[in-house]
Structures are given as structure tokens and as C-alpha cells.
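Aim 2 progress update. The chain analyzed this quarter is reproduced below.
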Amino acid sequence: MRIDIITVLPELLESPFSHSIMKRAKDKGLLEVYAHNLRDTTPYKQGQVDDYQFGGGAGMVMMPEPLAVAIELLQKYRKYNEIIYMTPDGPLFDQKTANTLSLKENIMIICGHYKGIDDRIRQLYVTKEISIGDYVLSGGELAAAVVVDAIGRLLPGVLNDETSALFDSFQDGLLAPPVYTRPAEFRGMAVPEILLCGDPKKIEVWRHEESVKRTEERRPDMLRED
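Predicted C-alpha cells:
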């Protein structure tokens, strides 16, 4: 999979993809992530990429020409399955979306800044909009990193245990059950005996019951969804 990210602050994306699971995915050749500095392709002098908004009001808007040039330049080399715009007013990112995107071959992500991007870019190029929560960040870079991480860890061969991602929270519409490791007793608190019984079927039943219980307590809204 290849992911190209258009940004005015590529430096913000260096660390998230240089460590841990994302680094492993890149080292194995399973994931390619490239951050493209929008200021390198803008047709305006001094790297200008934003201007005042029509109609007045506080805050600058990212201009359409620099983004169009960057998008079309990338499109010359490959066809993109999705061109994603990270925006607070987009549909909320969830595990189902991550699963779907992990099956794509080429993805482009546009990181907004200031008051956002000229709406004509959204109409002409963007195929999918994503929000990671009902709040506003300084830019779309951190949100893009979240999306790439969620997608990248799902690629076959990235995780050491191929089945690990299948049992993450939200994969089956439930939160994950509590987990324990050694020692079996810690500060007077013992690991549930069922996890030590050696019977996989009984353990599976217990984990499912605990997942339902935890979801009911912490995210009852998930159980009300169709």
C-alpha cells in the first residue's frame, strides 16, 4: 500500500512513521508513506498557499491552485483509490472505515490548515472526508497520522501475530475484554481463574461475556447501533 500526504508541515509526520509498528510496516515493504510539502509545488511566490476568505471573517483559507497542482502532479504517476480530506466536519473515523481502507492500494490524504481548504477542491477531487473526533486541531497532520496508523497495522504481515488485529476493540462491534499477564497475583489481586484453566472454549466464552459487559458499561451506544 502507498499513502501520499499533502501537507504544509511535513516535519510533523516524520516521527509517527519512523518508529514501532509503522516503521516495521515500511521496513517490510508493506507500506509506503510519503509526505509532500505543499509549498514546494505552489505556483505563487514565496510559497504562498493561503489567502483571506471571500465574504470576510477571521482566519485564512488554503487556496485551490496549490492543492490542485499537488494533487494532479501525484495523479500523473498513479491512480488513487481514495483522495481523503481530514476535516472536523467529515464522517467520524471508525474501525470499519479503517478495515475498508486497508484493502486499498493507493491513498492520498490532504491535511487542512487555518480555516480549511477552498471548497472547490472538496468538490473536484476529494472522494472521502474523515474526522477523528468532534474537536478542532491546528492542522490535519496528526489526524492523518492516526488514520495511517489504524490502516497500516491491519496490513497482512505487519503485526507479528496475524490474528492480533482481529481481536481489537470495535472489530466485532464490542470493546475488547480485560487482559492480564504475569505475575498471576499482583498486590493482592489475582488473575481470573478462568484464564488459567487451559480450556480455550471456556476462555473464549468468558472473554465474550466480559466484552459485552464492558461495552454495556462504557459504550452502551455501540449496542444500540443497527
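The mean pLDDT is 94. Residues 200-218 form the longest helix (19 residues). These observations will guide the mutagenesis experiments scheduled for the next reporting period.
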